[in-house]
Amino acid sequence: MAIPAAGSPIPARGEAPRAGSPDVSPNHRPPPRVWAVMCYRAGENSQIRALADALGWPYEEKRLHYRWWGYLADVWRGTKLLGIDRRRSSPLQPPWPDLIVSAAMRNEPVCRWIRRQSGGRARYVHLGKPWAAVASFDLVITVPEYPVPSRPNVLRNSFSLHRVNDDRLADEARTWAPRLNHLPRPYVAVLMGGYSGRYALDREKAERLAREASALAREGGGSLLITTSSRTARAAVEALERAIDVPYQLYRWRPDAPDNPYFGYLALADAIIVTCESATMLAEACATRKPVYMFDLGRDASLRPGLGESWRQRLRRYAARCNLQRLKALLYERVFLRVAPRPITRDTTRVHELLIASGRAVWLGRPFPPGTPPALDDLARSVRRVRALIEEPAPARRGSRSSAVPAAGPLHPPLSETGQSSRGFA
Asked: Residue 118 CB: number of other CB atoms within 10 A?
């Protein structure tokens, strides 16, 4: 698992449209009014901003404050604001937008309400997994991990949208290189997620991550650049930090922190390790076109029955290793996936298979294939589809239905904050 030479240049690739670039349509119409309706998960908010930035139009971020009992209204999938507290949310009032970009189940009723208030003029673009019928959206931009049916208003990308591009990486590298020059190169970035569906990052797995990441850094005489996320449990962070035995810097995630080194770590890393449950972090890491290693958060072999082991011995051994994170993952895999309707489930293994088949990532412990990984083009494809949606003649639009969306082109072929601490070693 050799790491490329320290300081290897970032390979050139197609540039995504830049945020805030002027609208250059031939008829010089004013740019559309865009609302980016943020949700309650950092990964999906990153995708919302990625698309909104890449469109190049000015946009407003709308933040919602959810009522604790609002899930009941949201699951009903209506067109109401019962699930949010309007007094504590961003103003939802005229002038209404021409375009809504959002994600997540709890935002769906709100976005449909906004579209209704606009007289059906606003176009609603949903990212990820839709919970309502696909026909109720103007455009759904989704990925292989979600079982979304093929429809004219569905764009099926290979990977999650992201905000990684050459300009941003170059800027972040200039900012963070002086702050990290006390650590030996090559750098191995470690992106830590947490519980998600069938996956859990608990103390035991965090210790294993520390050992394996340390071994990769030690092989080249380098160090680790570690960042946690909104889903990382404190116990996992503490366990990982205790088990690291190479120089490192650790950033503890905080919401809306102004000095987050996440993109700086991506820019300066010579190799990247990502916990396998996060499709968004995997896409961001692969967008750098550097070696990406996926850390497996699947069930440990130590929990499988041993040879000649009685059920009492197995139960005692499992109880000794069990914790809330692992229990939630086990219930998701053994119960939820067997009883839940297929449209609301998620299969991240399809993302793993695609990344490996396309030469963009391998499992940690496997050698990375020679050569430069291919670039990602999903963001540019998404921008083209959204622009086509907005430029559709007004008479063709029909209220809150999506029957008049432009016909889809060929689907993408499916394959298969600042809590910082650092320690240096002589």
From this structure: 19
